[in-house]
Design brief:
Structural class: alpha/beta
CATH topology: Rossmann fold
CATH architecture: 3-Layer(aba) Sandwich
Distance between the termini: 40 Å
Bound molecules: iron/sulfur cluster
Oligomer: single chain
Strand content: 5-15%
Number of helices: 8
Radius of gyration: 17 Å
Order of helices and strands: HEHEHEHHEHEHH
Number of strands: 5
Number of domains: 1
CATH superfamily: HUPs
CATH class: Alpha Beta
Strand order of the largest sheet: 3-2-1-4-5
């Protein structure tokens, strides 16, 4: 039977609530809209650093824009904490400020990794390589930074295979000796909530995943 990653995370959070522990979490984020709900959900239970490592965003301008939006969202959440202004959010008021760790922009590493897979449809083998590249870097950064665990916002996307992402994350975690938190953030209306939050903060919501191949695929579908 397929594991229920969402329930696994809920169980984990339940244990944290009971013990009062607040582990250090490195949260790989693909973009501000996807992280909006994940940060809202997790910030009461973990000390979060967002890890922005997305060499799959092959256009530099697009990359810079997504990164700026991520920073703007974090500033907004941190302002709420500073001003104790959590009333409009799904929050009990225990949230902490969020940090960001920005990896160098390196689209060449992605293009090299997916060479030969350019024409795969979204959701195919190219995406598996892309997940592995980003989660490997997240696991390494989590280990080097002394984090208790790491995970990714990517499971919020209805277009991404949560089982594949969780298995990839767990393998990366085992490789570096750091815990991967299971997730399926689209569950419990997580995806819907991310759309509401994106609207609330006026976040840029891109209409393609990230690489030029996914952009081409989206454009050809729209013509
Ligand atoms: S479609 Fe998205 S997940 Fe797949 S390779 Fe491109 S950027 Fe990565």
């Amino acid at each position: 039977m397929r594991p229920n990653y969402s329930k696994e995370l809920d169980k984990e959070i339940q244990n944290l609530s009971e013990s009062g522990a607040r582990p250090k979490l490195l949260l790989h984020s693909c973009c501000a809209p996807c992280s909006s709900y994940v940060l809202e959900y997790l910030r009461e239970y973990y000390r979060i650093t967002v890890f922005f490592y997305n060499p799959n965003i092959t256009e530099a301008g697009e990359y810079a824009y997504r990164l700026e939006e991520e920073k703007r969202l974090i500033r907004e959440y941190n302002r709420q904490v500073e001003e104790h202004d959590l009333s409009s959010m799904n929050s009990t008021g225990a949230a902490e400020k969020i940090a960001i760790l920005e990896a160098p922009y390196d689209p060449e590493s992605f293009l090299t990794a997916v060479r030969g897979y350019e024409d795969c449809p979204e959701g195919g083998d190219r995406c598996g390589i892309c997940f592995a590249l980003r989660l490997d870097a997240a696991a390494r950064a989590a280990k080097e930074g002394g984090f208790d665990c790491f995970t990714t916002t990517l499971t919020i996307s209805p277009l991404k295979d949560a089982a594949r992402l969780n298995e990839t994350g767990m393998r990366a975690g085992e490789k570096y000796g750091v815990r991967f938190l299971p997730s399926d953030f689209k569950k419990k209306n997580g995806y819907k909530r991310s759309i509401e939050l994106s609207r609330q903060f006026g976040l840029y919501r891109q209409n393609y995943c990230g690489c030029s191949f996914s952009k081409r695929e989206r454009e050809s579908r729209n013509t």
